């Protein structure tokens, strides 16, 4: 865990704000860097870390049978990156594996990652979750169609169950897993006890769940000033609310750029009203 700071400037939207980021940054996607550019001081305390699946056996077997599927579905950017990384290890080309498949992605961020690594998908829902993809599939006859779900280990079952209900045949292969991050709890609690945080960012349900587990009981009630909470996605927001907490920012378009934009808008509006 570490703190990243830039000198505050009155000309940038988040100048002077201290923001806790509970997501692991990657070289491809850094929420912390986006916040820094807008002037925030960032405390990084990842609650989860992305690791390879427990076993690649099922994925490796399915890759060899890819030609039998009509659709491949990527449910996250991590799914795209880890799938393509594994194909590289197997010395297989995505173009060769997916050439005869239609590709669907959950979320514009996932679609963008796929486009950067290979091609633009055939289907991206307007609503950036599994439920939105299911809505988009209503115009297709799914009976007896074969789907390959490329996703996290232990995913939500909503997408799989709904496709099966429509008569589709499903093979799901994990290409990564969310594991609790090993962090310095004392450092995090010390930062929280200072009562100097303006925002806490949650980008996944597992992040808020792991965050809650390390907090002392009645922690939120002990704060003299409660940080605002920003979430990415309906499921994450619902998880935050299940703990009795308020969500202050949640962008309509579920990606980091729009999450940061939303916080900037809120802070600028607050500044103008002073």
How would you describe what is shown here?
The chain has twelve helices and ten strands. It is α/β, with parallel strands linked by helices and 274 residues long. The protein has two domains: 2-37 and 181-246 and 256-272, Rossmann fold, CATH 3.40.50; 51-179, Rossmann fold. The chain has a five-stranded mixed beta sheet with strand order 1-3-2-9-10. It has a five-stranded mixed beta sheet with strand order 4-8-7-5-6. It is elongated, with a radius of gyration of 20 Å.
The CATH architecture of the largest domain can be given as 3-Layer(aba) Sandwich
The strand line-up of the biggest sheet is 1-3-2-9-10
CATH class of the largest domain: Alpha Beta
Count of alpha and pi helical runs: 12
Mean pLDDT: 89
Radius of gyration: 20 Å
Q: What's this, in brief?
A:
With 274 residues, this protein is an alpha/beta fold.
Characteristic terms for this protein:
274 residues, alpha/beta, Rossmann fold, 2 domains, five-stranded mixed β-sheet, 12 helices, 39% helix, 18% strand, elongated, disordered N terminus
List the helices and strands and how they pair.
Elements (H helix, E strand, L loop, with lengths): L1 E3 L13 E4 L9 H7 L3 E4 L3 E4 L5 H7 L7 E4 L2 H13 L4 H5 L3 E4 L2 H10 L12 H7 L9 E7 L5 H8 L3 E12 L4 H9 L5 E4 L2 H10 L4 H4 L5 E4 L2 H9 L13 H17 L2
Parallel strand pairs: 2-3, 2-9, 5-6, 5-7, 7-8, 9-10
Antiparallel strand pairs: 1-3, 4-8
Helix pairs in contact: 3-5, 6-7, 9-11
């Amino acid at each position: 865990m570490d703190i990243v700071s830039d000198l505050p400037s009155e000309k940038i939207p988040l100048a002077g704000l201290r923001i806790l980021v509970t997501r692991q940054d990657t070289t491809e996607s850094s929420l912390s860097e986006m916040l820094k550019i807008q002037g925030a001081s960032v405390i990084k305390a990842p609650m989860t870390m992305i690791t390879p699946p427990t076993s690649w056996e099922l994925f490796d077997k399915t890759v060899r049978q890819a030609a039998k599927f009509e659709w491949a579905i990527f449910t996250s950017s991590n799914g795209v990156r880890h799938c393509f990384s594994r194909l590289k290890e197997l010395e297989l080309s995505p173009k060769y594996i997916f050439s005869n498949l239609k590709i669907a992605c959950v979320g514009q961020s996932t679609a963008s990652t796929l486009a950067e690594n290979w091609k633009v998908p055939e289907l991206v829902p307007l609503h950036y979750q599994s439920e939105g993809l299911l809505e988009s599939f209503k115009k297709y006859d799914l009976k007896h169609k074969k789907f390959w779900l490329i996703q996290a280990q232990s995913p939500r079952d909503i997408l799989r169950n709904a496709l099966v209900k429509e008569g589709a045949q499903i093979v799901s292969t994990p290409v990564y897993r969310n594991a609790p991050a090993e962090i310095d709890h004392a450092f995090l609690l010390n930062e929280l006890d200072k009562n100097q945080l303006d925002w806490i960012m949650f980008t996944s349900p597992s992040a808020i769940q792991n965050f809650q587990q390390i907090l002392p009981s009645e922690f939120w009630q002990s704060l003299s000033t409660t940080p605002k909470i920003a979430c990415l996605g309906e499921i994450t927001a619902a998880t935050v609310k299940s703990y009795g907490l308020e969500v202050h920012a949640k962008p309509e378009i579920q990606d980091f750029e729009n999450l940061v934009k939303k916080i900037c808008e809120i802070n600028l509006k607050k500044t103008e009203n002073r």
